Amino acid sequence: MSNNNRTVLNVVAVSGGLNTPSKTESLVQNILDELSSAIDIQVHFVKLSEIGPLLGGAIYRHQLPERVQQDLEKIESADALIVGTPVYRASFTGLFKHLFDFVEQTALVDVPVLLAASGGSERHALVLEHQLRPLFSFFQAQTLPIGVYATDKDFTPQYTLQSEQLKQRITLAVARALPILEWAPAKGKRVSALAQTSKQANQNLGINTQIEQEGVLPSISVPDLSVAESRIHHKKPFVA
Ligand SMILES: Cc1cc2nc3c(=O)[nH]c(=O)nc-3n(C[C@H](O)[C@H](O)[C@H](O)COP(=O)(O)O)c2cc1C
């Protein structure tokens, strides 16, 4: 997508925070603000504090209300994701995971994902590496090198950011993300191509069926590996 011949990155933010106000939402919003000061982005923000009650009772994707269906389609067609969650019992919130259990399993291949979390203390900072990164590795997403972790004391009572260190961490995370985001694979072309295919494929599948069924969706987002494979199988000897 382009605006005055400039590429606009289609960024979807997801916060697993269940409270309002939410430190996690504030953290994710600060990352979005930093990113938008550097590049043109179009943002869709999915907040579990808003859709959690609509999501919790659904086992099959077709049971989800239209609003959540649309959020899933936005996630599946994003050029890049910024995901944040509060730490609950040393992991992401259950509803954050439940949302991603509905995401079509090939839709995020190669999609850059910036990881963020907020916790009560620093003791669970590795939730980024031990919980969030493996989840998005399952999706074959491109998890960005630097994640952002905040604790309660990084926020004012109004949940704005007060920690200079945290602000610097956000700047660093965005700076390291920019070169990757700028050659994000599809840059806005994903939206129309993926949305319909994904919707059809998922509509009648339960979570388990989706995981177990092989080749359920020859997703347009999956790069054609034949070129890479042919290189591997016809490897030329290295000449010094
Ligand atoms: C049910 C529950 C479990 C929590 N478990 C942890 C935990 O294991 N480790 C931690 O550091 N903080 C834990 N916390 C604290 C929250 O992660 C922390 O306050 C977070 O910033 C809240 O984010 P929010 O304002 O977006 O809801 C827990 C909070 C709740 C309500």
UniProtKB/TrEMBL annotation:
Domain NADPH-dependent FMN reductase-like residue range list: 10-154
Keywords per UniProt: Flavoprotein, FMN, Oxidoreductase
Gene Ontology molecular function terms on file: oxidoreductase activity
InterPro entries associated with the record: Flavoprotein-like_sf, FMN_Rdtase-like_dom, FMN_Rdtase_MsuE-like, NAD(P)H-dep_FMN_reductase
Cited SUPFAM superfamilies: Flavoproteins
Pfam families (alphabetical): FMN_red
UniProt record similarity statement: Belongs to the SsuE family.
Record's protein name: FMN reductase
